[in-house]
Predict the structure.
Amino acid sequence: MNFLKLFVVVSLVVSLLGVNFVNSKSSSFERIKSRAKNQTVYFNAWGGSKEINDYLAWTTREVRKRFNFKVVHVKINDTAIAVNRVLAEKQANKNTQGSVGLIWINGENFKTMKDNDLLFGPFSDMIPNVNLIDFSNKEFTLVDFSVPTDGLEVPWGMAKLVFFYDSKKVSRPSKNMQDLLVLAKNYSGRLTYPKPPNFHGTTFIKQVLLEKVQDHSVLQKPVASKRQFDEITKPLWEFLDDLHPHVWRNGKSFPKSLNNMHQMLNDGELFFAFSFNPNKALNLIEKGEIPSTVKVYTHEQGTIANAHFLAIPYNSPAKEAAMVYINFLLSPEAQGRKANYKVWGDPTILSISKLPPEDKKYFDNLSKSSVTLSEEKLGKNYLEPHASWVKELEKEWLARYGS
Amino acid sequence: MFKSGFLLFLALVLFVFIFFLPILIGLLITFLTSFGFDVSEEGFGISLSAWKDFFIQTQSLPAFYLTFKTSTISTILSIGATFFIGAYFYNSKLSAKLEKNILPFLLSIPHSTFAIGLVFLIAPSGFFFRVLNLFFNWESPPQVVTYQDQGGWALIASLCIREIPFLLFVMIGALSQIKTELLALTSKSMGYSNFKIWTKVIWPQIYPRLKLPIFVVLAYSLAPIDMSIIIGPNNPPTLIILILDWFREPDLYYKEIASCAAITIFFLLVAQLFIWRGIERVFSYYFTAIKINGVRGKENWFLNFATIALMIGVFIPMFLSFLLNLVWSFSKRWPFPEIIPKNLSWQYWEGMLILDSTNYIFNSLLIGICATLMGISLGVLFLEVEKKFAFLKRIFSYSIYFPLLIPNIIFLFGIYLFYLYFDLNFIYLKIILVHLLFVVPYVFITLRENYRRYDQRYSIVGKSLGKNSLVVFLKIKLFILIKPLLFALAIGFSVSFAEYLSTLWIGEGRVVTITTEAVNLAGGGDRNIIGVFAFLQIVIPLAFFSFCIFLNKKLGFKL
Amino acid sequence: MALLLKKINIYNEEINLFKDFSLEVNHGEIKTIMGPSGCGKSTLLAFICGALDKNDFHQSGEIYLEGKEISNMSIQKRKIGILFQDDLLFPHMNVQENLYFALPSYWNRAQKKAKITSFLKSAQLEKFGERDITTLSGGQKARISLLRALLAEPKALLLDEPFSKLDANLKKEIKKFVFNLIKKAGIPTILVTHNKEDIPIKNKNKVIYLK
């Protein structure tokens, strides 16, 4: 853990230096603003959710009004496709008029872009509202799946693993994974997770791993050897071997995505589900997409948390407008609206307590509903393991359960 | 008008550049990519590493087996069902009704819409089990595997349900080209039963005309994208799902592995075609024997009932899947075991209207109409020159159908990389050009038989009355062919309208259409919105269809 | 000679239809060509009017119409009318429109109208101008079809089994109508048929038998 703390401190210092840099150059942001005018930003962002699409539609209208440039939400199914496009453009020497103006990204995709020099920046110190981000309490905003962000991407929102259970059908939530196994046996066939390498499916596996492994610092470093991997992940596979006979379809097949699971929870086929967004359950209940009897909980020792980010490809034709747009997305107004479960319900990465009162008001109407959990009740945060672990986990999972 | 030499030149140039080269280049790039070739890098070293890695992926072999299994079984079952359903109605008025009212509607339902609706129909918490629940009163939905099963049977069934109407439609067309009624009457007078007449007299005559559509069905069944995603097995999945998964991998090397899978599908297709030829030969031997054995047969009522049941089994799920989608678009929440939703709401439709939905509709219409008009022009041009130059007939008979006979992911993949490399702008034009690859064959199929049936003497009379070729073509030929032309227009439009992968890839995700949005949302699992889009996906092509029919009625010849 | 065929050769790899075939037809004369199906009657007519596909047959020989050689002209320029056993009225046009189609485009509207009215009247079809083709009887269609051919003012007329689809009663009437009109217009005509009854009574000696 020492390594991690040191790392966080160093990153903090770096970012603070960046803040000073920004203050001295607040006029430079004005210059960026003026250059942003009349540009068009092709914002490549996942488009599978109506709430998110509607929220983004609002932001594009606002920046159009306020800053006089255009943002087009390119609704993509999978971020990797956009990443690959930029990569292919680089190989094809399309170095100025790239098709991706701004990208919503994290994890492996960020690593790919960073490793292949596909990113513009570091630019986070040029964005004034980066100062408002709660770096100290949310250390996951500085590392993306254990890869340092290095100012090449700016955190936009956060995710934290929370579990759902239908209180009408299940008597109590689980305290930890071992306890979840007990519940799985009691409610046979009513629990499952999406099939890895689906992102959420892999997240579930990682959560099991993190609960089963004592020393998390190993997981922050790349996988050293196959032997080390086998040794460390042994309890994970043992657990899954025990669990699978009691899950949906006896673990012979798995749902395609978390959305499918929510649908099955709604249909009564499943009694359990989970989400990477603590406010998601409330939002789904409001829309009538899961039963109103669903309750949210986390495991005692903690659950995985991470951030999702915004990055600008090196060949973005509208870098200035992209930066002004990012600054707007990080504003208390936009963040407050985003955190509202009726709009999207994506938790803010800003430090609300540090905001001036006139900005705090944007977060006033955050829900006090019993379905959502307060910051304390959300419990501790587990950091994402290093990306190399993810790859190996997915491969091993497929080899064991994938055919 | 133009000299026929000029027309020939024009047709050949357009054929090669718009049609032939893109497919060839697409295939070639996909093929080379599987051997480690990178379009954007200079130099090219052959490497087998992608193939090696493809074969050692734990899911590859099971996926290969599943792909082979689902496509083979679904194709054979579809043909079998078509055969028996045809035996039942070939000599009745039912076929006209099917052709006019039922089948065009069923065929206009896009694959994705159908699959989404079907899942809701057959899922353990779905409509079918809700009806059963009236008698059983389960507390929670039963734990049965009805879709995404490991054996791929749900995929097989849904492919059959989707393809049988298509084959029936083509079959009715083929029946109208032979003298079915007279043949049946003659054979009946010799004491043959309806079924025996069908097997011995009618089917052998129409089978050659069904070959091509059967191959289209076969090719489609090897890589049905939307259906595999929604209803197919996923553990292990079929090859097409593996390709899409690998395509999404951030590591570009997986693209090479994906192209290996695409090439594998191609070889699978070739192998299946050979097997098919073999089966055909055995059958034709057997058929010759039974054709002349003189057995009259008796009317078999059981067979008739079984056929009716089969037809219901095919048509009802399709209608229901459409209806259920529609109901979902109006329901607020609709949990198990409610048979009809308690709370209805307009909110999803309102949301649709408020959103910048005009954008999707505009794009869909713009691309669809342009692609269709260009497709029709090309189709007519090809048909005109084919008539004048016999050697083209052979070329077109095979090559025009390439895009339908090769699972399109194989060459789309290459075309995508090609466009990327050459940095061609004009994004809409690119999409339209790629849509043409699918519009032209369908237009060609729809028009060809009618075009050939056109009585040349009309043109001769027209010309002998002193009018030039252009006038005769525009004022007589086009008008006499107006029905098939408008029908082809409607078909072409719905083909373009339903294109998903090509629009997404070539449009770089920037150009959204109703269909890309619908499939996109299908991934999000929100049945209400899916319902709205699925409905639009059917209604807009249908509206276009009706518009064409309206035009057909209105378009009188004016002096 | 109004219509003259000189040394016509029509053949392909499979069949040799005509070898050095010659024929003369005078104004108002109806020459009948008879023979079994497949002997090349219709092919000959197609050749004369210029509709025979060069890809299907090798063809040579000279055709003169009123002294002018027309062998190398397009169908449009030959001014030869043709009638088939099917009426081939354009189904998307009504009776009038079919007739209008045959008139030269440079005529003005009034001229066209007057001409068509008088033609319809002469055939006692004056009330049928607005009628849809599909509502006409076989005899009416046959008559209008001939009117249409004549409106284009052809210098020769080719009849390809024009009566074979008509029933016996009607046939008599139509034959009379057709032959009278041709005689009145004085147009050289070739009639192709496989039925002896179709031959005009006064022309029994003007029959050519093909094998």
In short: Chain C touches chain B through 29 residues (CB under 8 Å). The helical segments of chain C are 41-49, 75-78, 95-102, 109-122, 138-151, 168-185. The longest helix of chain C spans residues 168-185.
